Amino acid sequence: MDERVPRDFETLRATILDRRETLPKRIAQIAAYALDNPDDIAFGTAASIAASAGVQPSTLIRFAQQLGFDGFTSLQQVFRERLRERNSSYDERLQALRAKADAGAGHRAIFDGFVAAASTSLNDISRTLDEAHLEDAISLLAKAETIYVLAKRRSYPVASYIAYALGKLKIRNQLIESAAGLNAEMVAFATPADAVIAISFSPYAPATIEEARTIAEQGVPIVAITDSSFSPLAQFAKVWFEVAEADFAGFRSLSATMALAMALTVGVGEKRRSTSRKRKA
């Protein structure tokens, strides 16, 4: 296999995103499907994947060849390897870290690994953040009567922090969560005068995507934090941010996402105060 051919999922994902603007329409369609549904690509048949993606089976072969693979089966191996790595239990990941510590590096090496991953994530977002998008998002959120915050699973700590910080800033908000299963009813209260911050990363939480879809259909503007222009959240959002988090030993950082969340939250507070001062002047 050519050395330039992506050998792991993260490299493959980065390659697809780098070429997304130049891919032919049908190949871009299967590329988007592949990043949104990597598990299906890993173990589906060419016929079943093509049917789900709405393309011809031959498009899968052209997609693989476009990325440098000799055929679809070779490409599929990258998706299968990703699934094997993702399915490793947290105990296995901890055992791997413990082995590094026992090998003489000590637990400081584990700490340094997480710091390095966090630093990489922060450096990447600092370099790539679109300032105009940040201003647009803050302006949109600052005008909202209520800011709804939507996230599940790994993204939930970020949503929880946003809700906490907005409350401290005396900005009306609603974290969409309900132990009683009333999420749908909470979502139904959102109107076009409100706004939503939605956060989800691959593999995207189905509940987050469905609730974001419902909210968008109600005409409520969404600011999304996600990891790809192919993310289903991106298609619903008025403004969206692409955040690529680095990982260490399979544990992915949330450093860049949290930094962006803090900037949005504090920015909204400052924007509202500035607007209030102008009205009083």
From TrEMBL:
Domain SIS, residue spans: 137-273
Q: Which GO terms describe its biological process?
A: carbohydrate derivative metabolic process
The record's annotation in Pfam families points to: HTH_6, SIS
Q: Which GO terms describe its molecular function?
A: carbohydrate derivative binding; DNA binding; DNA-binding transcription factor activity
Q: Where is the HTH rpiR-type domain?
A: 10-86
| Domain of life according to the entry | Bacteria
Coiled coil is among the record's keywords: no
The alphabetized UniProt keywords are:
DNA-binding, Transcription, Transcription regulation
Q: Which InterPro entries match?
A: Homeodomain-like_sf, HTH_RpiR, RpiR-like, RpiR-like_SIS, SIS_dom, SIS_dom_sf, WH-like_DNA-bd_sf
Protein's UniProt name: MurR/RpiR family transcriptional regulator
